[in-house]
Amino acid sequence: MVSIRTEGVVKRFGEVVALDHVTLSIKHGEFFTLLGPSGCGKTTFLRTVAGFELVDSGRIFFDSQDVTMLPPYKRDTGMVFQNYALWPHMTVFDNIAYGLKVRKLPKREIEKRVKEVLKLVRLEGLESRKPHQLSGGQQQRVALARALVINPKVLLLDEPLSNLDAKLRLEMRAEIKKLQKSLGITTVYVTHDQEEAMSISDRIAVMNSGRIEQVGTPSQVYFRPRNYFVADFIGQGTFLEGQVKGEKEGYLEVEAEEGLLLLASPSDPTNPPKPGDKVIIAIRPESFKLSKDTNTIKLTVYDVHFLGKSKRVLAKLGEKTFLVEVDPTLEVQAGTAIEVSAPPEKTLAIRA
Ligand code: ATP
After folding, report:
1. Does the beta carbon of 85 sit less than 6 angstroms from any atom of ligand 1?
2. Which residues contact residue 171 at a Cβ distance below 8 angstroms, ignoring those fewer than 6 apart?
3. List of E strands, the chain
4. Is the CB of 48 under 6 A from ligand 1?
């Protein structure tokens, strides 16, 4: 188990800056996720940590060891690729044993280690099958077993669940998390699925165009997004534009088209907006109350989605659509007027 530190890592592909001065610290045994839209540089980051890509500048450390120039086989990382990359002509056993054979371990030792790891990923009895004789979930487990069998210092997972159906994805998510915690292996996980990132990670780095926008626990990036990109990318919400007027009762007073609103402390306390500054007001669907109180806004219901545990009401004020989550038993009809309020402590003022 190691900690991983990158310092100002830059990686270019021609004109494209895939990693733009990426500085991150990943702790011993941590489940750390890189989350961001397609093309933001997530895979490139994993590949530079594994050593499949060399950085243009910056440094990478495993604990205090500088691994920046080390080839992949000297870094001791296990990687699971998005498409699993199993060898189709090899059996499950041979796919998993490959890394040990390359390392020239004795036959007995290889058999023992493969057996152990098959048990770990619950694939016992399937060792003589070929990949095409396995389900997607089983292939995914073979890929995981192949990464783990070498006892890597670091486990790198590149969207490992994206080829699985929704139900299996949930099961495998729980399995990977449990396995990671029981092995205590430092893990870097890549996904563009914010719900997956939130449910599996100790901490998340939100990436955008090769840069890190924010690093934090799932609840920090959800409730305290540092900027509009993070607020918008993580979960849903209503975003309004406003201008800071001043302070009142410890809250920010913000003038918006929807009225004078009182907002909680700014999303980035190190750089709070001042009177006159433009801000974006972010309100999560579950933060609205269906009653008159501070920050009351009158809306017209446009559509209602039944989600099981709640109803999602889409309501409009002029051209603006509000997302409001309500109790699923509540009758809300499209076309009717509702009054919602947003408790100040559940709103955020983000610098525009
Ligand atoms: P996805 O979620 O779609 O896999 P990603 O966030 O993993 O995307 P990367 O694959 O790291 O993104 O790519 C980052 C940027 O670098 C993209 O613009 C991509 O087109 C570019 N890129 C990646 N690899 C190469 C390469 N070998 N040659 C040229 N450009 C590349």
Report:
1. no
2. 137
3. 4-13, 16-26, 31-35, 57-62, 65-66, 77-80, 154-158, 186-191, 203-208, 211-216, 238-248, 251-256, 259-263, 278-283, 296-306, 311-317, 320-326, 337-341, 347-351
4. no
Tokens 């997004």 -> residue: 225
Helix axes 136-148, 92-102, angle to 10 degrees: 20
Residue in the structure block whose two tokens are 């011993």: 28
List 26's β-bridge partners, or say none: 4
Ligand 1 in reach of 191 Cβ (< 6 A)? no
Q: Is the pTM of this model over 0.85?
A: yes
Taking only the tens place, the pLDDT of each residue in 250-289 is 888 999 988 889 888 666 667 778 899 999 999 999 999 9
| Cα–Cα dist 88/277, whole Å | 59
**Cα separation of 192 and 195, whole Å?**
9
Two tokens, residue 20: 């733009």
- Angle, vertex CA 337, rays to CA 334 and CA 341, nearest 5: 115
Kindly provide the b/e burial profile for residues 243-274, where b requires at least 16 CB atoms within 10 angstroms of the residue's own CB: ebeeeeeebbbbebebeebbbbebbbeeeebe
The whole-angstrom separation of Cα 242 and Cα 184 is 46
What atom in ligand 1 is closest to the CA of residue 207?
6
- Given this model, what pLDDT does residue 267 score? 63
Per-residue exposure over 26-52, b if at least 16 CB sit within 10 Å of its own CB, e if not: beebbbbbbbbeeebbbbbbbbbbbbb
Q: Cα of 42 to ligand 1 centre, how many Å?
A: 8
Residue 123: predicted pLDDT: 86
* Å from CA of 307 to ligand 1 middle: 35
CA distance 318 to 299: 9
Nearest to 161 by CA among 179, 134, 143: 143
Token pair for 151: 């006892």
Ligand 1 midpoint to CA 138 (Å): 27
